[in-house]
Structure formats: C-alpha cells, structure tokens
Amino acid sequence: MSKKILQQAKRLFATAVATTALFAGAVQAQTLKIGLIGPMTGGGAPWGYAARGAMQTLASEVNARGGLEVGGKKYQVEVVVYDDQYKATEAVAAYQRLVTRDGVKYVVIQTAAPTMALKQSVEDDKVVALTTAYTPAAIDDKTKFMFRAYSTATDFMPAYAAWMKANLKERRMVTLNPNDETGWSQSKVTEKLYKENGFEVLSGEVYERSMKDFSPLLTKALALKPDVMDLGASSPATAGLIVRQAREAGYKGRFVQTGGAGWLEVVAAAGKEAAEGMVNILYANQADPGYQRIVADYKKQFNGQAPNEILAVYYDAMSVLLAAIRKAGDVNDTTKVAASFATVLPMKGLQGDEMVYAHQQIRTYDYVGVLKNGVPVVAGKVR
After folding, report:
1. What is the DSSP letter of 306?
2. What is the pTM of this model?
C-alpha cells in the first residue's frame, strides 16, 4: 500500500470515528421536561410570567454547564408552559397534554383551584408536582407526590401579624379576599391571627375575581370606619384597583396584603401616592445580589419588563426539584425522586436564606415590606 493511500485511509478512519462520536453524543443527549401550568393571561399573568422566567433562567444555567447529570447521564432541561387562564378546567386539559403528549413527569402548578382539580391525578399518575397554592387542602396525610413550593400564610402569618401589632398603630380592620379556595383559606387563617394580636376585624368581604367595580363592596366596608384594610390574596392588578377605588371613595387609612405577591403591579394600578405606606409580604429583597441577577435575566427574556418578585420562589423551588432528581439517580423513577426531597434539604436559596423540609413542603423565609415612594423597603423577616 502506497504512503498516499495509507494517509487517505487514516483520514477516512478519523472522519468515521468523529462522525460516530458525534452520532453517539446526539443519541445520548436527552431532555428532562418540566411542565408549568399557570395563568399567562388575565389578572394572575404576572405570577405566570415570573414562574416561566425563573424556571427558564435556571434551565438555561444548568444547560450551559452541560446539563443536569443524573445517574451518569446528562440531561438538557426544557420548560414546557401551558396557560390555564386561572381556571381549573384549563389546568386539567393542560395537565393531560403534558403527561400524555409531552411525556412530562414533573410539573409546577401555580394556583389553588387548578391544584385541587389535579391533586388526585398527580398521585394516581405518580407525577412529581410543585404547587404554590395557598390552600392547606393541597397537602394532606395521603399526599406523596405533591409538594408545596414555599411557606404560605399558615406558616408566616403568626410572625407577620405579630410584626403588624408591634409596628402599626391602626387596629380597626376589614379584609377583602377573592371568592375562591385561595381567598377562603387566606381569610380563615388571617382573621383568626388578627384577632389574637389585638386587631378588631370589623368585616370579612369576598368578591369574584372577575370584578372590576368595587364601589358597592367598598361602600359597605368603609361605612364601618376601618383604619386598616387587608387585601388578602387578591391578585396584583386587582389589589391595585381596590387601592385606587378606595382612595377615590375617601379612604385615608392603611392597606396591608398578606398574599398575592405583586407590589409592582399594585403601584402601577393604584399610583405611588395611593399605595404609600402599604405593607406587603415580600418573597424577595430587591437589594439582594442573587435576586438582581435573575431579574436581569428575566428582563432579557421579556424585553426589559420588570418581573413579579415571586420569581425568586420558583427559582428556588425548581432548584430543589432538580437536586431531588439528581439525588434519586433516575429521571424516570418519580417515587425515588419524591422520597429525595427530604434528603436534599436543608439547602441555601437564591438569597442566601436556608430552605428546610416540612411534611411535603419547602419552608422558606419571607420579608415584610413597606411601600415608600413606590418601592418596598424591607422592614422585617418572617418564616
């Protein structure tokens, strides 16, 4: 064999080896899909976009490092998003598409009615689900595959109500909550704690989430002469609308909110002056470097739009989920993954606070914020 022919043979062999390696890599490159079911339209859209942005940011970070290594294999993380329009029926349809068509074994469900509608299906299908629903009914003694993604009112309200008692002079209160599973549970928890902390709860009002004109409800509430109004679990834009309409009706007192994260949307809908002094439960410290980092990434995704702060919750919750999958060592064995949640916590969250495990729940820290000139100033910390 001539030297020239030998060299050509070597080149052909090298090309064949490289091609085989590339093909093998393509075959081995696998995808781990995480589903998201939440409101991408309507009043809850800021929460939906925050969840989507946070999950996609974390997925991009993991993928940039070569993917999530599970059981000796690398997986590219993909977030599959469906809009449930804040409706249980849409959430059920989205879940079926995720599980049967998209092959998803892991899903984030944002709100209470969809969570309750899917609760049994999650258990029957052995789909690992994270929920940010406030309702205590989402988790019970039989729950194995559903996990609460953060601390809710049941957890932080004792410390939050105590903070308000120590820091606010106002005592005559009315509460306003949406007329659904989220609002009912929020009202039940908060009104009891307010009374225990010396607040006089004059009235507990509920309204339909589709409501835009709050004049009749506010006329009834303001006739009781409250000096503090709790907007409970109202969605961000709705809370801002209530604030504006209450001010227009002559209300001079203070607003507080115990759920429904979204100070940015509240200020946008109500105006800085109307919202001044409002006390909010915060899921993020605006000055924290870790939070600022994912905010910057969110703005790149959404053309400079600022996110709802619940962004931080979903980034941390998905971090725990990925850690549990990695610890289990098998992306297909959701029983092992569910069992791994308790073993990967405690772990540090995005903002440096330690997340711990309770029964089917990631327990997190929250902050107390007071709106000053349209921006929340952190005034306390609760869990």
Report:
1. P
2. 0.83
